[in-house]
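Progress note, project year one: complex with FE2/S2 (inorganic) cluster.
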Amino acid sequence: DPARSSGPAAAGRLAKKLSGDGGWMFRSHLPDTPLTEELPEPGSGAVVRSGAGLAAVYRREDGGINSLSGACSHLYCGVTWNEAEKSWDCPCHGSRFNVEGEVLEGPAVKPLAKMKLDDGK
Ligand code: FES
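Model obtained:
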């Protein structure tokens, strides 16, 4: 059902999946855990599998995408989408990045790396 598999609902399910069993921190350390294959709605972000890694994908209002590494530039925990703040937040030490990958809050000092999406085909 495509209507149920993207956008805020998917983000909600993702958040639930991430926090559901208390395994959130543990999972964030696994570099290739498939979280979702879905691209987000315009104005929203999602972590998607890209090749062997994870990409933090933001879909702009113009429909284009900003695709960044899903690994925090500090010590490589997996970032998560913050819908309220429209930011990528790292659960490990609190670094935050904007949708361009620029640092909003440290300890990270480098932006999220740009990442080309790779669907493995
Ligand atoms: Fe992301 Fe340290 S690994 S803030």
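The beta strands are 44-50, 53-59, 65-69, 80-82, 87-89, 96-97, 103-105.
The first helix runs from residue 7 to 19.
No further modelling is planned for this target in the current period.
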